[in-house]
Specification:
The protein has eight helices and 13 strands. The protein is α/β, with parallel strands linked by helices. A hairpin with a 5-residue loop joins strand 11 and strand 12. Alpha-L-fucosidase is responsible for hydrolyzing the alpha-1,6-linked fucose joined to the reducing-end N-acetylglucosamine of the carbohydrate moieties of glycoproteins. This is alpha-L-fucosidase. It catalyses: a neolactoside IV(2)-alpha-Fuc-nLc4Cer(d18:1(4E)) + H2O = a neolactoside nLc4Cer(d18:1(4E)) + L-fucose; a neolactoside IV(2)-alpha-Fuc-nLc4Cer(d18:0) + H2O = a neolactoside nLc4Cer(d18:0) + L-fucose.
Length: about 375
């Protein structure tokens, strides 16, 4: 700051440089749909306290009063609902780094509630009443517990009396004691990816930029997650019963830069082929194969008279010599094996005790269903 800005320049002075002149919510929604996403969560206010909507509780520190002079939240919410089947959610930071009222309550060891009563809670009620989100993604409880934030009171209203009471979903960041313990689903910590099956529904909140939750002008190509790694993270997360929430940092001009757009569209291309192993899937008896590395499992129960179980083996690395050995599945006499997106079935043999060995025919390049991670569909599996 000392090197690049004049003396006395404050964080608040950046607001007038935030124009969002190229912000096109319909374009954003087109990218989100193409990514294969089923819901989006917009950061309506982060820890610096600037609200992206014209909040009545953030005087002169909101996107309508200074900077873009637009309701960035309302525009995206409307675009999502008018141009897609996506569910719209809002992210809201409870605390604010620079708010003197928050720091006053903090100094009093959260025995006073001035900030919570005049700023944080009113904003949450305002967001829900005005934009009617399907998801309320809370963050930033810091050292204050849910009693300070009056989270139980808000959630009681949200689920019983709010305009979204019959459909809303919330996460677990409602107080210093609630993370990974109380919530509609758990986020636990940023980039939470336990790698094992969890008892409660959870979400892996991660970033395309490996080092930042916002846009960085200085980011290098190697700082951006590779598509192979993004799909691997997606597969591992879903295999263990989680959802994935992928952070994209737009520029101050309102653009999702091409490298981020490319990653999202690539993920969508992959999901177009392999989505049956992801959407509405359930964790299987095994999450990853006990013999072959980089193989993760999901399953579907298809009701056809008797329950018919389908198991998907998502292979992150193409098998050597076109032979895929899977130790975890137990085949029945009616089991079939196929590659999702490719016609026909493949021959296989049973291993002693448990497992199968799949013989994959030579597949020409232009017949390969996708370029990264391949899904083998196993029907009528016993276990």
């Amino acid at each position: 700051m000392e090197k690049n800005y004049p003396p006395g320049f404050t964080y608040a002075d950046f607001a007038s440089q935030f124009h969002a002149e190229f912000y096109n919510p319909k374009k954003w929604v087109d990218i989100f749909k193409a990514s294969g996403a089923r819901y989006i969560v917009q950061v309506t206010k982060h820890h610096e306290g600037f609200t992206s909507w014209p909040s009545n509780h953030s005087f002169n520190w909101n996107a309508m009063a200074v900077g873009p002079k637009r309701d960035l939240v309302g525009e995206l919410a409307a675009a999502v609902r008018s141009n897609s089947d996506l569910h719209y959610g809002v992210y809201h930071s409870l605390f604010e780094w620079f708010n003197p009222l928050y720091n006053m309550d903090k100094a009093a060891n959260y025995t006073t509630h001035v900030y919570q009563q005049t700023k944080s809670s009113p904003e949450l009620y305002e967001l829900v009443k005005r934009y009617k989100p399907d998801i309320v993604w809370s963050d930033g409880p810091m050292g204050a517990d849910s009693n300070y934030w009056k989270s139980k009171e808000f959630l009681s209203w949200l689920y019983n009396d709010s305009p979204v009471k019959d459909r809303v979903v919330v996460n677990d960041r409602w107080g210093s004691e609630t993370g990974c313990k109380h919530g509609g689903y758990y986020t636990c910590s940023d980039r939470y990816n336990p790698g094992t099956l969890q008892k409660k529904k959870w979400e892996n909140c991660m970033t395309l930029d490996l080092y930042s939750w916002g846009y960085r002008r200085r980011a290098k190509i190697n700082d951006i997650i590779k598509i192979e790694d993004l799909i691997a993270t997606l597969v591992e997360t879903v295999s263990c019963g989680g959802n994935i929430l992928i952070n994209v940092g737009p520029t101050s001009s309102g653009i999702i830069v091409p490298i981020f757009e490319e990653r999202l569209r690539q993920m969508g291309q992959w999901l177009t082929v392999n989505g049956e192993a992801i959407y509405s899937s359930k964790p299987w008896s095994y999450q990853n194969d006990t013999l072959t590395p980089k193989v993760w499992y999901t399953s579907q129960n298809i009701s056809q008279g008797l329950s018919k179980k389908i198991v998907y083996a998502l292979v992150l690395q193409w098998p050597k010599d076109n032979v895929l050995v899977l130790k975890s599945p137990i085949a029945s006499k009616n089991t079939t094996v196929s590659l999702v997106g490719y016609p026909g079935t493949f021959p296989f043999s049973r291993l002693s005790n448990q497992g199968i060995s799949i013989e994959i025919p030579v597949i020409s390049f232009n017949q390969m269903p996708c370029s990264w991670a391949w899904t083998f569909k196993l029907t009528n599996i016993v276990n």
